[in-house]
Sequence to fold (58 residues):
Amino acid sequence: MKLVFDVEDVPEFLRLASDKGLVFGPIHQADGYVFANAKDPSGNSVSVSSRAFMDRPG
Fold:
């Protein structure tokens, strides 16, 4: 299971998170959106993703 947070600007979120000491892995390109993964202190998977904000046809 992975907890996913929708953020419009993943690179900016990662910059701000890094300033607060949070560590995410690299940004991954997907089909029209980007995301990055991390683990919380208990080892649970966490992701930030711009998928909810991607352009959709129509």
